[in-house]
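Hi Y.,

Following your request, here is the sequence exactly as I used it, all 201 residues.
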Amino acid sequence: MCMSLTEKNYTAKQAMLNLIPATRNLEGNALAGYNDYKTMMQMQMAWQQQRSIFDLDSLEVANLIFIAENSQGTAGLQAKGILEYAYGHHFCNCLNINDMSGLKRSGSINPDDLAKLHGVEVNAHPNPASQWVAFNYTLPANTYQGEIKIVDAKGAVITSFTVTGTQGQQVWDSRSVTPGVYFYTLSVGEFTKSGKIVINK
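Below is the corresponding structure, written out as tokens. Let me know if you'd prefer a different format.
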């Protein structure tokens, strides 16, 4: 919904604003977004009668900040634009990562968490294993291939496999290795996802 304020007929515009919820059957989030939009339009109608966006009082600026921080629609974008342009505010359009716990453990980013964020996944089962291990993997949609590398506890490479497709399974015949702890890593470009597996006989 968008309404021009270039004409000075504020009474007609107010009447039109009041009709929108009923004519569009707005409910829930859509109604909340409309209410924010209506507030923005009413504030702009009041400003245009006597002032510009540079002449707002502290209550009006506080209302803009509230809308900017809480509205996901047009009203939020308008409020952010006014605050950034006229009042020096800055709003970050940063990525929203829901689970930041892995990224907060240390001063650097955990490679496994970064890989997961980009769609790189691998897990091994059974674990512990004796005769074979199945690695289920997921690669990003725009990736042609990755590599699963298995190393022993000393870091010596035991074997590696090239894997393709967005999802799949690679089976490792583990009968020829000695019992112990092994580590596997799925590498896809700059991203890696690792895990540990125990081989029993």
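The first strand starts at residue 121 and ends at 125.

Thanks again,
Q.
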